[in-house]
Amino acid sequence: MLKKNTIFTVQKKSPLNIFETNILLKYVTRLSDVELIINNEKKLHKQEINILNKLIQRRILGEPIAYIIGKKEFYGLVLNITSDVLIPRPETELLVDLIVKKKFEKKIKLLEMGTGSGAIAIAIAIYSKNKIEIIATDISKFALKIAKKNAKKKLTKYNIPIKFIKSNWYNNLQNYKKLFNIIVANPPYIPKGDIHLNKGDLRFEPINALTDYSNGLSSIKEIVKNASKYLVKNGLLLIEHGYNQSNLVRKLLFKYGFSDIKSWRDLSGIERVTQGKIS
To answer: What element of type H or E holds 66?
Structure first.
């Protein structure tokens, strides 16, 4: 347990690594990275120490930093995060990259399924420079609440709207058939009983957003099977999937009428996103 002390001493005595310690220090003191360095001899108030000790204990018990401070950076954007949504991960930025780097001659329509915190949709909206009209769905009303809050915070100054719809995949999208140029999704793809569900950050994340309670492909199959009803001709479907699922996802896309099927690797060299085009 840390006692009243300077920022420098806290950094030295903290049971956490310096990176995590500094994140919590910045959260408690409202200081920036530079200010932590400049003010490293500053004594923390008793209340600050008490709060810091509680946060450190939560982290020692395994709770993710993002949930502790309620924020996470994704694609250069700092988003609000709670335990109602998955923590946005660096590998998911590949989905955004693949879309914002495309050249569109005119404004297109995009559907994101299972938006969670809204990270993917919001990043695409901002970095596509308003060339994409976006609808984002989620089955969780709590996730949608967070996504709307993030969208309002990040998109208001750009005057870019995102329409959010509560839907279990395509269930509430009957009025949107043959509308979208792109569908993008990061669905639950961890198989039921996978040991990773009981390790690390995953223990604290919403289980329904992690696993399909089946073989890890049931949600992906549902999205692929019905995508042609909602895509325009030559429309694209991009899906993030597990580290060992790319070949199976490619087969699913082929089975349900997609062509120009290809997979992309994330920064770890793992095939993480697979795309298909509907004729």
So the answer is: helix 65-69
CA dihedral 237, 169, 161, 109 (to 10 degrees): 30
Under 8 Å between Cβ of 96 and 240: no
* Residue 132 Cα distances to 106, 160, 161, 201, angstroms: 9, 9, 10, 33
Residue 64's pLDDT band (cuts 50, 70, 90): very high
Neighbours of 175 (CB within 10 A): 7
Q: Which amino acid is at 137?
A: T
211/215 Cα distance (integer angstroms): 9
Q: For residues 273 and 271, what is the distance between their CA atoms, to the nearest angstrom?
A: 6
The neighbour count for residue 230, using CB atoms within 10 Å, is 22
Nearest to 272 by CA among 184, 143, 200: 184
Q: What is the dihedral of CA 127, 201, 112, 125, to 10 degrees?
A: -20
* Higher-scoring residue by pLDDT: 112, 5: 112
- pLDDT tens, position by position, 185-222: 999 999 999 999 999 999 999 999 999 999 999 999 99
CA-nearest of 95, 74, 124 to 275 is 95
Give bridge partners of residue 71 from the DSSP assignment: 80
At residue 271, what is the residue type?
Answer: E
Q: State the pLDDT at residue 4.
A: 62
How many residues comprise the chain? 279
CA distance 150 to 122: 8
**What's the pTM value of the predicted model, to 2 decimals?**
0.93
